[in-house]
Write a structure and sequence with these properties.
With 208 residues, the chain is mainly α. The protein has a domain of 64 residues. The chain is built from eight helices and four strands, in the order H-E-H-H-E-H-H-H-H-E-E-H. A two-stranded antiparallel ribbon has the order 1-2. Strand 3 and strand 4 form a beta hairpin. The two termini are 37 Å apart.
Length: 208
């Protein structure tokens, strides 16, 4: 949400420029054990949250997440079940290859909405197929993708490469291979980075 708002704000402030933005989503596993593994059974989302953060901290964190989400129009809910993200990453990868960045972003938006607002389990193949239909992806291609070990390995490799490159959490943003940022950022912070990037690239071109 904030990245999209930052892109719009930058373009509005610099209408005379012809800068374009391409956003590509790449995989990262919070739980590296899912790489190369079979589908793990989903578990209760609240149970998983408490297991990770502790029962005493959970209410405070729920409130903080809900408050932050409300500021950008996200109605966070914390029920439902959750499992591994490997299949969801396969779907995101397919969306990028078949539909390009715009379709890939639509898939990511729907996955986030399904998980965080609709309390649906995005490790469930049926949910992934629903999302794919909504954005117009071919169902047969999606089913083939979700059963393809070749695609699964490619996603695993990319997810593990991220860790090898020092990425330890999400969200993580890599901007033109010049700036790497981990953690939620305000839109203004992105706008300032875009402006700084433009100056750096103009300086580099002037040296040639």
């Amino acid at each position: 949400m904030r990245l999209r708002a930052a892109i719009a704000a930058y373009q509005a402030q610099h209408r005379a420029r012809a800068d374009t933005f391409t956003v590509r989503w790449t995989p990262f596993y919070l739980d590296v054990r899912q790489a190369g593994g079979a589908r793990a059974p989903a578990i209760d989302k609240r149970e998983a949250f408490v297991r990770k953060h502790g029962e005493e901290r959970a209410p405070e964190l729920y409130e903080r997440i809900a408050s932050t989400g409300a500021l950008v129009g996200i109605d966070f809910r914390f029920g439902g079940r959750t499992g591994g993200s490997r299949d969801a990453h396969r779907l995101v990868d397919l969306a990028g290859r078949k539909g390009g960045p715009e379709v890939q972003w639509k898939v990511v938006d729907r996955l986030f909405q399904a998980c965080h607002e609709e309390e649906r389990d995005v490790s469930d193949v049926a949910v992934l197929l629903d999302v794919a239909r909504e954005v117009g992806l071919d169902e047969r291609e999606v089913r083939d993708c979700l059963e393809s070990e070749e695609i699964a390995k490619a996603v695993d490799d990319e997810a593990m490469k991220a860790r090898e490159n020092g990425i330890t959490g999400v969200p993580h943003f890599s901007i033109n291979n010049r700036f790497d940022i981990t953690g939620a950022q305000e839109s203004l912070a992105f706008v300032k980075l875009f402006e700084r990037l433009v100056k750096l690239e103009e300086r580099d071109r002037a040296k040639v």
